[in-house]
Amino acid sequence: MSPREGLEEEPEFTGRGYRMADPAKGRQRHHAEHAIYVKSLDEAATLIDRGFSLWMVAKGKRASLISPQSLRIVRS
């Protein structure tokens, strides 16, 4: 996945899991208190299909919140 031009990004994995944002939180979804964490990329993919955004990070860059429309899910 490479949502930001020229950067190789990957889903951000924290000590609590992959960090996501609930679309029901509207313009406040990026705030830490509204973060949702899942343990697997399969869980993340299911939530992305339901409109959740995913925090992604590139080496040396801060994590950024990527909308589900900008993500491509590849399942094998």
What is the mean predicted local confidence, pLDDT?
Answer: 87
Report the C-alpha radius of gyration, rounded.
Answer: 12 Å
Shape, per Cα inertia axes? globular
- Counting structural domains, the number is 1
Q: What's the helix-strand series?
A: EEEEHEE
Structural class: alpha+beta
Tell me how many strands there are.
Answer: 6
Kindly report how far apart the N and C termini lie.
15 Å
How does the major sheet shape up? 6 strands, antiparallel
Helix proportion: 10-25%
Beta content comes to 25-35%
- The poorly predicted ranges are none
Number of helices: 1
Key traits:
76 residues, alpha+beta, six-stranded antiparallel sheet, 1 helix, globular
Short description:
The protein has 76 residues and is α+β, with helices and mostly antiparallel strands.
Describe this structure in words.
Residues 1-21 are annotated as: Disordered. With 76 residues, this protein is α+β, with helices and mostly antiparallel strands. The protein contains 1 helix and 6 strands; from the N terminus they run E-E-E-E-H-E-E. The protein starts with 9 loop residues before the first strand and ends in a 10-residue tail after the last strand. The model has no long low-confidence stretch (mean pLDDT 87).
Task: Compile the SSE list and pairings.
Layout: E1 10-11, E2 13-14, E3 17-21, E4 35-38, H1 41-49, E5 53-57, E6 64-66
Antiparallel strand pairs: 1-5, 2-3, 3-4, 3-5, 5-6
